[in-house]
Structures are given as structure tokens and as C-alpha cells.
Amino acid sequence: MTAPHVSVVVPTRDKAPRLALTLACLAEQRDAPATEVVLVDDGCTDDTRAVAAAAPLPVVVVRGAERGRAAARNAGAAAAAGEHLVFLDDDVLVGSGFVAAHVAAAGPDRFVHGGLRELPSAERLLAELDGASAQQVRERRDALLAGTAGRRHRLVANALERAVAAMADGTLPDVAPWLGCVGANVSMSRGTWRAAGGFDEAYGLGWGCEDIELGMRLHRMGVRRVVTAEAAGIHLSHRRPDRWQQHDRNFRRLRSSYPVPSVEALPELLGPTGDPRRYAAAVREAERTGARPR
Fold first, then answer.
1. Are 196 and 217 in contact (CB under 8 A)?
2. Rounded Cα–Cα distance for residues 164 and 170 (Å)
3. How far is CA 100 from the centre of its chain?
4. I need a labelling partner for 70 at 20 to 30 A (CA). Which of 9, 149, 163, 248 fits?
């Protein structure tokens, strides 16, 4: 068997139906170098193991330490055999060119963000695809990526994704060139991950900011952000009632570590009412006046 060049690291916890769709997408990658999937079982109590065993591709299963997303991603990366690491969440649908696009955009001085769109109707989609064939799953995914799935399944870009895309293509001032290391869909070389020290596990079990923080460290190392639409993913949205409370706790840690305008203004971007232009304006104003964003 050819040694893998790419390792797709997928941390998971109790999302078996969504994970099955993610693995189905990864099973049909085209024009990609030898690839392995490293699944980090971070304390699953559902039938995740059965889903991994039945997946239409080989899956390396690693036991996570149940210390949060940063620790799970690091455990998967440490166990990976590939020289290029792609971090992908367990509830993201990707096209057949996903891995190839990440590899094509790769470089020793860059991290690659593939982009994400939210699918608010994910529960409806899961019900529709229950028992579906691989062909039916592929057709539905392709329709979603192409924007032809109809009104029942509209994709939405959150404020962070809109900001990263706009800063990357120049339609918004690039006030945060470090922003874009989104753990749900990002890649880098193994050497880059190792040199940065991996994800900061001190962010613990709470949701948010552990991937953003890695982006800041990568930027300070001279690693630049690259965005490639060809590696876009569809996030199967789900409810997390205390999402923003968890995020606020982790954001306080991030802000204390990096007291710069582009970090301190993040509340203008992250959150249910985030707005890219308001964020960019707040950063520019703080840089001009020296005042801390409110």
C-alpha cells in the first residue's frame, strides 16, 4: 500500500449520522495523492465505531483524551502518517475535489482555508438521506455545492466566512491577515503544525477560538493565509444552546493573549449579529486612534 501523503484528521463525538455522510464524501476523492482518514473518537457513546467500520474507505481510529477540540485535533495529527494535514469536522460535506484542492494550494509558508457554508436545514437533509444510496448522497451533495438544491436547502455564509473571503479577494481591507484558520476546514504541512506547537489545548472543552488562536501564531511565524473555493465544505448546522457563552469564555483568553485591535474587535464579527464591514471599520478606527474597540 502506498504511504499516505495527506492525512485528513476528523475529530468526532456522538455525531454518527453526520459523520457517515462526511466519510462518504471522503471516500470518493479524485485526482488526490495517497490519502488516509484519521478519525479521533473523543469519547463517543453512539455507534460511531460501527460507522467507521462500515465506511467505504479505510479509517484509522484514534482514541481522544476528551479534553476538547484542540486536544482531539492534536491527537489525530500526532497519529497521522501524511506530510500534509487537512483538519475537517465530522459534520461537513465536501466535493470530490476537496483533498486535491487543498494539496494544490499548499505550500511550506501557508495554511489553506477551504471555506464553509452553513446548511440550516441539515436535520431535514439527514432525514431525507436516511437509507439513501451512495449515488443519491453524491447527487444531493453536488446539488448543494452548486446551489441547485432548491429553496428547501439554502446555504448561508456566516459573518466570519464572509469576512475571510472578502479580505482574501480584496473587497474588504485585510485588517486580520491571520484570520481564516478555521478548524472545520483548514490544512497545513505537518512541519508547519509541529513548528507552531499545534492547537492550544488550554482552551479546553469550551467551543470557539482555539483555531483562531492557531491562525495568529501561524501568521506571526510568517505563514500566510490562502483561501480556495475549490475546497469548500457544507456544514450540517446543529443547535448548541450555550454556544456564545462558551465562545465568550474562550474569547477572553484569546484577547488577554493578543491585545491587538484585530482581536479586540472580534465581537463585531463573531456572534449572532456579526458584520464584516463593521468589524473592519472597528479595527481601522482603533488603529487610527489607539483606543481599544468597545
1. yes
2. 10
3. 17
4. 163
